[in-house]
Write a structure and sequence with these properties.
- This protein is globular.
- Helix 1 packs parallel to helix 9, helix 5 runs parallel beside helix 6 and helix 7 packs parallel to helix 9.
- The chain has 9 helices and 10 strands.
- The chain starts with 6 loop residues before the first strand and ends in a 30-residue tail after the last helix.
- A 5-stranded parallel sheet has the order 5-4-3-10-9. Strands 6-7-8 form a 3-stranded parallel sheet, covered by helices on one side.
- Helices cover 35% and strands 15% of the residues.
- With 271 residues, it is α/β, with parallel strands linked by helices.
Length: 271
């Protein structure tokens, strides 16, 4: 990986292009070990589901993953309206001493967890005006992605497939349209199931990948976290290197044939 190839979000550079969630692990110890194995510097936390100081009597994620070492990305998982999302992130800002980098997601359907883009646009406008640096989960609609960027979001995060589905990238063409038009980082969010999915996202030109279930629900979350780290790095290097063009029925030997040493042998028996 090139030394100067950093992921820059809202003016801050990160050496890791893998962002990882902190939910669904069996305990905070496993969470920490998986995050360490992933090499991630940005960790997401669902404010409505994870204790980061709301309940002083319960273990806090802040002890397992100290903010001095990791960049927290509070998210609005479980919110179904713009008002609810805005209220949740204002609470997060208070709990994290003015922290303003957040992940906005407003869901439209509890069964599929597909984003409600109308409410997402409304919440993004309010949060940006309120001084938040908004990274935003959205559908893979290039028009909506561009509108969110124009509102002032610092990163757009289109789904690869439904949250928690592990189905991988179902529509690479839309992702490419979003990437080509965007002037802010494009980070695949949701749907990654295994390391090859993460590598493909990076090979397409995505600037990063965010995942949670793919690691936390693996048989060995810590081992999977390490695999995802390697996949993101390999996919990024492949994108920077530029793959060979695909050719249909245009075989070309790996080694040059010019000047090849001739071989001799007995002629076939004509009998």
């Amino acid at each position: 990986m090139q030394n100067n190839d950093s992921l820059v979000i809202a003016g801050t550079a990160y050496s890791s292009r893998l962002l990882i969630g902190t939910g669904k692990y069996k305990d905070f110890d496993e969470t920490r070990r998986a995050v360490d194995a992933s090499g991630a510097q940005i960790v997401t936390v669902a404010i409505r589901r994870t204790n980061i100081g709301q309940d002083p009597k319960q273990p806090s994620l802040l002890d397992a993953l100290p903010p001095s070492k990791f960049t927290y990305l509070p998210n609005t998982a479980g919110c179904y309206s713009a008002d609810d999302a805005v209220r949740t992130l204002r609470l997060a800002r208070e709990l994290l001493d003015g922290h303003d980098l957040v992940k906005l997601e407003v869901l439209g359907d509890p069964a599929t967890l597909f984003p409600n883009v109308i409410e997402t646009l409304a919440a993004a406008k309010t949060l940006v005006k309120d001084g938040f640096k908004v990274m935003v989960y959205t559908s893979d609609d290039p028009i909506i992605a561009k509108q969110l960027e124009e509102i002032g979001c610092v990163a757009v995060m289109p789904l690869a497939s439904l949250i928690g589905s592990g189905m991988g990238i179902l529509n690479p063409w839309n992702l490419q349209l979003i990437i080509e038009a965007a002037k802010v980082p494009v980070i695949v969010d949701a749907g990654v199931g295994t390391a090859s999915d993460a590598a493909i996202a990076m090979e397409l030109g995505c600037h990063g990948v965010l995942m949670n279930t793919a690691v936390a629900a693996a048989r060995d979350p810590v081992l999977m976290a390490g695999a995802m780290k390697k996949a993101v790095e390999a996919g990024r290097e492949a994108f920077l290197a530029g793959r060979m063009p695909k050719k249909l029925y245009s075989a070309s030997p790996s080694s040059p044939v010019g000047g090849a040493i001739a071989t001799t042998g007995s002629k076939p028996n004509a009998a």
